[in-house]
């Protein structure tokens, strides 16, 4: 494992969050409160209270604050994105062993809104990646027409495509290039 379990968990959360935004052929992945609640359960986000329409809007907006870290050309740009993210919300680092999990650090302030909680969780995980000199592992999918982002956790940094069914498919990519050529 490259990073701690918590960090990798939060990185997966950041990737799914950014990729839920409507873009190109993708529909809105978080269209309503039910979808938001499912997201919270899927990513095991703790201490989440009642969610409102304002929470949904704030989480949808948060995605565009996280996205630029995946296309940052250098460490300094990535650091600026991360710093903006983690300075938006209060941070209260503390050790916790809730719900049977071993001791780990929570950074979000108790009682934080879901968007603030996610901004801190994702921001701190991304901060660890940049601080480890691994910022290049934060990427955009290289498949044509795909705007999804990914974290490359492979040993040899070989991950090029997001996890969408078609993206890693050579035939799909070749067919697309052929269509582009034909259209010119
Ligand atoms: Zn926890
Ligand atoms: Zn893709």
What does this structure look like?
The protein is mainly alpha-helical and 184 residues long. It has one domain: Jann2411-like domain (Jann2411-like fold). The protein is built from six helices and four strands. The chain has helices at 5-19, 33-42, 53-66, 75-87, 114-131, 170-183; strands spanning 91-96, 104-108, 138-140, 149-151. The strands form two sheets. Strands 1-2 form a two-stranded antiparallel ribbon. Strands 3-4 form a two-stranded antiparallel sheet. The radius of gyration is 17 Å and the shape is globular. The structure holds zinc ion (ZN) (2 copies).
List the keywords.
Jann2411-like fold, two-stranded antiparallel sheet, 6 helices, 4 strands, 9% strand, binds zinc ion
- Ions, cofactors, ligands: which are bound? zinc ion
Main sheet record: 2 strands, antiparallel
CATH superfamily: Jann2411-like domain
Can you identify the CATH class? Answer: Mainly Alpha
Unreliable residue runs: none
Please work out how many helical segments DSSP would assign. 6
Spatial gap, N to C terminus: 45 Å
**How many whole angstroms does the radius of gyration measure?**
17 Å
Q: What is the H-and-E element order?
A: HHHHEEHEEH
Number of domains: 1
**Care to count the β-strands?**
4
CATH architecture classification: Orthogonal Bundle
Instruction: State mean pLDDT (0 to 100 scale).
Output: 92
Shape: globular
CATH names the topology as Jann2411-like fold
